[in-house]
Amino acid sequence: MQGVIQFLDDLKKNNNREWFQKNHGRYEESRNKILFITELLINEIRSFDADIPPLDPKECQFRIYRDIRFSPDKTPYKTHFGSYIARGGRKSRRAGYYLHIDPDEGFMGGGIYLPEKDMLKALRTAIYDQPEVFRQIMEQEKFKTLYPLIEGEKLKANPPGFPAYFEQIELLRYKSYAFSTPISREQLADSRFLDIAVDAFKTLSPANKFLNDALDNYL
């Protein structure tokens, strides 16, 4: 992984097309390394999450090229690699496993980020019907250590359609049901990085199962 780390470090300092073209070989080498890791992760995750089918890692990896059409930031390239492992690949609406390779701001995570209105209602309804099941997942010791928070914004008021007296009403105010845990530069460089990632994703898998079951049963 050291070559990937060095490439991303250099890209952050030289985020322009001329430098990228001169270093395109390094980019391809780094990209292929992440594709290989993604493929290994797919195979490992499938051993504990039946929702994940056989996937081409290319279907899971995001492009490094930024869409700058409507952005004030005109730098042409992302300075990280990202892969989303879920049924349907990177475009999936289902809960899955996200790997964000960045020497400075890397993380692993998953769940569902900013679901569409109908999906969000399904997720909230499942939590309303099974609050203790959802709570038990989040309060499992290892889960809570790696994923202490539900990520993202919350509604200021209670969501419509749910009674205000519901004891776990705070859980229904989230706009996302996503989780993340940071990856340090040292972990990226560790020869055991794949084991670290698999362990983090296995810990996350009960939450993903709850969310995907919610989509299957309430949507």
Give the helices and strands, then pairings.
Layout lengths: L1 H12 L3 H6 L1 H22 L11 H4 L20 E5 L10 E6 L4 E7 L4 H13 L1 H9 L1 H6 L30 E7 L1 H5 L3 H26 L1
Antiparallel strand pairs: 1-2, 2-3, 3-4
Helix pairs in contact: 3-9, 5-6, 5-9
What percent of residues adopt helix (DSSP H or I)? 40-55%
Average pLDDT, to the nearest integer?
Answer: 96
The unreliable regions are none
Structural class estimated from helices and strands: alpha+beta
Highest CATH level, the class = Alpha Beta
State the CATH architecture.
Answer: 2-Layer Sandwich
Beta-strand segment tally: 4
Task: Assess the beta-strand content as a share of residues.
Answer: 5-15%
**Total separate domains:** 1
Specify the number of helices. Answer: 9
Q: Roughly how many Å apart are the termini?
A: 40 Å
Q: Oligomeric form of this entry?
A: single chain
Question: Biggest sheet, in brief?
Answer: 4 strands, antiparallel
Radius of gyration: 19 Å
CATH topology: BirA Bifunctional Protein, domain 2
Order of helices and strands: HHHHEEEHHHEHH
| Strands ordered across the widest β-sheet | 1-2-3-4
Global outline: globular
Describe the structure.
The chain is of the alpha+beta class and 219 residues long. It has one domain (2-218): 2-Layer Sandwich (BirA Bifunctional Protein, domain 2). The protein is built from nine helices and four strands. The chain has helices spanning 2-13, 17-22, 24-45, 57-60, 117-129, 131-139, 141-146, 185-189, 193-218; strands spanning 81-85, 96-101, 106-112, 177-183. The chain has a four-stranded antiparallel β-sheet with strand order 1-2-3-4. A hairpin with a 4-residue loop joins β2 and β3 (106-112). The protein starts with a helix and ends with a helix.
